[in-house]
Amino acid sequence: MRVKNLKLNNYRNYSELRVDFSDGLNIIKGANAQGKTNLIEAIYMCSIGKSLRASKEKQTIKWDMERAYISLDVEKKYGKSNIEIIISKNAKKTVRINKIPIKKIGELMGELNAVFFSPDELKLIKESPEDRRRFMDISLSQMSKNYFYLLGKYERVLANRNKLLKEDLSREKLLSTLSIWDEQLATIGSKIILNRIQFLQNLAPYALLSHKYLTSDSEELKLDYTGIIGSTEEEIKQKFLQALNKNLEKDIKLCFTSVGPHRDDIKVSVNGIDVRTFGSQGQQRTCALSLKLAELEIIEKQTGEKPILLLDDVLSELDNSRKKRLLNFCKKTQTFLTCTEFDGLADKVIVVSGGEIKA
Known about the structure:
Strand order of the largest sheet: 2-1-4-5-6-7
CATH topology of the largest domain: Glutathione S-transferase Yfyf (Class Pi), Chain A, domain 2
Shape: globular
Number of domains: 2
Mean pLDDT: 94
Radius of gyration: 22 Å
Structural class: alpha/beta
Low-confidence stretches: none
Distance between the termini: 27 Å
CATH architecture of the largest domain: Up-down Bundle
Helix content: 40-55%
Strand content: 15-25%
Number of strands: 15
CATH superfamily of the largest domain: RecF/RecN/SMC, N-terminal domain
Largest sheet: 6 strands, antiparallel
């Protein structure tokens, strides 16, 4: 899988842009606040259909303009496709694949598989379980449209159950109605949990190898899924139903559902120590990067296509040994790396200044 070119119109600080890319290492170089991250953000938006940086996508429209436009050409094993995204101030976002508008964002999943890493991704290790669940969900959604749709179904059922918990009903009416939502929640949730457990089991060996590679074999990384665990959908479903029943009084009191895949987590350990609680910032950063590099491997294994790698201002956060090892790893796939300075070998260097590409 390779991104051949990108066109932007009134996106962030870009008025007009067209840039072609190399199939190897693309260095996007420039001073701070010139538009380097904006460029790879646009690429990533063509992968997952939304911005990870903007709470409202209208914020990506250039100041005082009515709409932003992104167009990207991607080449895959079995053909080429064009992805277009139009973001308007006064209309819903439009996504087109080969000029045909898609009705659901799930149709975009798999058109461009991408792994994104920036210093902000330290939160993958350091911060809330939500960040680690999002990591699993984005990766699994790129590999399976069905998983993406399962998440949507689960969120709708969960919202209905939580709404019911807030209503002023007799206990008899509440319990009889809750049982209906519990059955649906456990049926869908067990599928999500099993997918995540299997994903983590497949990811763990690659994460271990990536971490050993980055740390010169000095550290051993281990991943564990925490929450409702089982080896089959039915086993997980029954455990989920038991957990819902056990936490019933708590849920009624709190007015929300306190157990399920929306509460589960990943425990990340290095040499037997919980990195989130006891790891240094350097260890946390290396663990997060190891997970992302392992994600590259697992997506290729599952889809037969190498995903692209987007690295935003990562080199400044690494020592020289890790920099060299990371750049060597980048040879495995098409890579887009932003930085302020770069003195190594690259297949293409793109210099950005003030929202323009400099010759």
